[in-house]
């Protein structure tokens, strides 16, 4: 079966958001990409009080100094396209108030004709949690649980009602409704978060971390789903953060998805063999501008399909 391919939209500071997002979105749809994706990075602490991913001493990449708001970016893409799905990988859900987030996603899905994929995670930045002011970082799991519950309620039939620690909705009519039930996908990397996914979500958003490791996690997740009696399929979208190098890069110390187009495609072939449904390729970090991003995305797509991905 052919692996679905998605493309990360241009959100970083080298791009003109108002011009480049619609242009890249239209081009990606014309090339054949099945989906368009955004990620969330709310701020860039300076000086850094916490390392990248919460790892002491690991610097934040310079590209994170300016990242466009994800749902605004997806709205621009929705208006410029007709077919491609519109996903978040990921939206740091606990940075958002549950009711407002549920309504924004529903409106976007209604406007786009039912193309939204709500990819949610809990994030890792203490500074982002402090700035958002919704709830403390230590409560992120509980907040995500309530956000999922509120979304299901708001997207469902009226009257909508919810009584939780963060959100209390007296019976009310809440619209617009999404065009169809919006799939909720979670960035889950351990057994506790896998249980949340198996019991209450529609899909999984792993990150490329080595083909064998992703395959092992996928096996464990399916086994857990069987243990807990889940019969619905789990949708899978693998995020790949690629570092395109114009001169290419070879050698034993080359990281996966680092190098020229041929090397990126070679790595895509390896990950496609894991058997996941879709691969999201984010090329924007090392692209100089929208033209280069589009050109590289087109070449990768063509060669990946020729290689059987």
TrEMBL record:
It comes from the Bacteria. It holds the Pfam family Bac_luciferase. GO terms for molecular function: oxidoreductase activity, acting on paired donors, with incorporation or reduction of molecular oxygen. It comes from Streptomyces murinus. This is Putative F420-dependent oxidoreductase. Residues 20-240 form the Luciferase-like domain.
């Amino acid at each position: 079966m052919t692996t679905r391919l998605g493309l990360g939209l241009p959100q970083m500071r080298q791009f003109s958001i108002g011009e480049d997002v619609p242009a890249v979105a239209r081009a990606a749809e014309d090339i054949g990409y099945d989906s368009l994706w955004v990620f969330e990075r709310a701020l860039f602490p300076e000086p850094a009080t916490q390392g990248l991913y919460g790892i002491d001493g690991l610097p934040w990449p310079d590209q994170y100094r300016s990242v466009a708001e994800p749902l605004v970016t997806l709205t621009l893409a929705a208006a410029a396209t007709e077919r491609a799905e519109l996903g978040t990988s990921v939206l740091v859900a606990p940075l958002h108030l549950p009711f407002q987030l549920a309504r924004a996603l529903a409106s976007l899905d209604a406007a786009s004709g039912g193309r939204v994929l709500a990819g949610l995670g809990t994030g890792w930045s203490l500074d982002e949690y402090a700035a958002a002011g919704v709830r403390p970082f230590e409560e992120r799991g509980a907040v995500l649980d309530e956000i999922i519950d509120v979304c299901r309620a708001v997207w469902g039939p009226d009257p909508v009602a919810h009584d939780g620690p963060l959100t209390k909705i007296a019976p009310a009519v809440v619209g617009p409704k999404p065009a169809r039930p919006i799939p909720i996908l979670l960035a889950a990397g351990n057994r506790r978060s896998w249980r949340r996914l198996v019991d209450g979500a529609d899909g999984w958003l792993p990150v490329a971390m080595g083909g064998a490791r992703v395959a092992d996690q996928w096996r464990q997740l399916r086994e857990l789903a069987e243990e807990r009696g889940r019969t619905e399929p789990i949708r899978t979208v693998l995020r790949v953060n690629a570092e395109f190098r114009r001169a290419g890069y070879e050698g034993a110390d080359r990281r996966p998805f680092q190098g020229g187009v041929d090397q990126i495609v070679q790595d895509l072939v390896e990950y496609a063999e894991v058997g996941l449904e879709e691969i999201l390729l984010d090329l924007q970090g090392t692209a100089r501008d929208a033209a280069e991003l589009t050109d590289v995305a087109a070449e990768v797509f063509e060669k990946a399909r020729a290689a059987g991905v």
